[in-house]
Amino acid sequence: MAVLKAIEIMASSPKSWENATIIAVKSAGEILKGIHSIYIHRLNM
Fold first, then answer.
1. pLDDT-based confidence at 33, cuts 50/70/90?
2. CA distances (Å), origin 24, targets 1, 2, 3, 8, 31
3. In this structure, are residues 27 and 13 in contact, taking their beta carbons and an 8 Å threshold?
């Protein structure tokens, strides 16, 4: 049986959405271990 944990993280960057994604994953990685994938739900530009 697989167990999944979903969390929502918000991040922004004046450079790009890619940079905001990197910031969000690095922040989450400091607290959460074993992040295997990310899903960008909403992209506001």
1. confident
2. 28, 25, 22, 10, 11
3. no
